[in-house]
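hey can u check if this looks right to u? its 291 residues, i copy pasted from the old doc so theres a chance i mangled smth
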Amino acid sequence: MEALLELLLTADPQPETTPHIDGWLARHRLRSDPPLEMAVRGGFAADRLGLVFASGYQAACRHLVPDAPPGWLLALCATESGGGHPRSIQAVLSEGRLTGDKRFVSMGTLARGLLVVARVGEEAGRPRLKVALVDATSAGVTVLPQPVLPFIPEVPHATLSLSGVVPVRVLPGDGYTDHLKPFRTIEDTFIHVAVVAHLIGIGRQSGWSAETIEALVAQLCGLVTLSTLDPRSRRTHRALGGILASISGLIASLDFSTMPEATQLRWVRDAPLLQLAGQARAARLDAARRR
């Protein structure tokens, strides 16, 4: 962490101007770095929130599956036509083969490794889920690009169709409690690590006060600590909720008018990213408070 703080506080804060995520991740060695480094260095080097998201999202996927093949970009494939709730999952893993469809896969057209959530049966009337790692180049895998979103347009999304696909391997443990459910917390943590690192770079470039930069560094350190905790714990959820509320308040107080004009325009366009899944995040925090 000391080396990352040195980077954030002393390295030249000149982001690379590029809209091409795949090449950018490769140039910055963000395909197989340790997750924390991936999120911090990627966020700091980015000139737009689309690249920030890509860095944090890949870091989250790598944190979830640290032994995924080096160099593979990863994508979690959970959401189907009925949503992402366990009861909505209709994709099936049976006799070692995957069949089903996924509706909204972030970075799906770039990913080599697809982390597919699928049913393997039922227990007490509830679906039993597993997560299978699929090579996107395997026979039976069809990935189709989806329309570009009005914000973070650099980040591609896709639909996925699986027809009797043999996975690379099936992750141990329960697909919901050990993988899908904690991933939401892991994703929030690492994406916000990348966002705060990005703001530190922007702030230093834009001449924000030392106190503002230090406040951002303090929030980053809190997120780093949370990244080492059990993402299934209600205490982790409550601490994350507090940090995210502090980050939101800090962002609201920042002077974005000092940004370079192109950076400011991209920030205004892409800021809705930070509100995505806000209701689900609030529901998880409320549940943690009541337990």
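Residues 2-64+179-290 form one domain.
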